[in-house]
User: What shape does this take?
Amino acid sequence: MLQTNNYSLVLLIQLALLTFDLFVNSFSELLRAAAVVQLVLFIIQDIGILFNVIIILLMMFNTYVFQVGLVSLLLARFRALLMLSALYLTLSICLHCWLMNLRWMASNRFVWTDGLQVLFVFQRIGAVLYYYFYKRTTEYLGDPRLYEDSPWLRDAFARARQ
Assistant: This one.
């Protein structure tokens, strides 16, 4: 079971990773003259997104709902976040690769192609949705009812067995 102290630590780590992600999305363009620094920030950002997904999955695996075997109930509840996380990670990696490919040799030149601008906009829209759904899911996973037996869980288990 996820204890209050453990949940606070996990929540702090998740929010720190989200804040770093927001920081990189907001200020990475200011570092375009230093391509190596920008590359390192992009790599850390992508690893942070991956860590956030792993943390959410571990929190889901720790619930009583998962341990009882109602995985489909959890997946139905958190499907949007899981799909959006995969999409956001893919968009981020594509954007980072494209930016680094265009800017590596000519970091001070204007390199914004039409396709890059479209990818940039979709990645930023995906980021906003990812932040919202991730924070909402993190708060929902802090609900103590997910970590103990309850009547609604017994009803859901009975429906799943039929």
Helices lie at 4-27, 35-61, 64-68, 71-103, 114-140, 151-161.
